[in-house]
Design goal:
single chain; mainly alpha; 2 domains; 0% strand; globular
Amino acid sequence: MLDCTHDELSFISSYLIKASDGVFLWVKLVMGQLDERATEGFCSVAELEKLLLSIPKDLKQLYRLILQKIAKRSRSDISECQTVFRWIA
């Protein structure tokens, strides 16, 4: 659980609204990235803000970033992701 001020939360929510350009899927994917980082262990609001600013605003670039992260995982994780992608396709 992060201890955040109203201003810190306001920055994050305002940035998400502006950067999303109305694309809800982008917000969902970015929230997943922030959640993943926050649950890895101790993480400050400043670190989350830095991560937020580093995430591509373009959906294709964000997909590429997510796929790069998947490629760095274990062989079984990659296989599981491939199964999910096949099911979705």
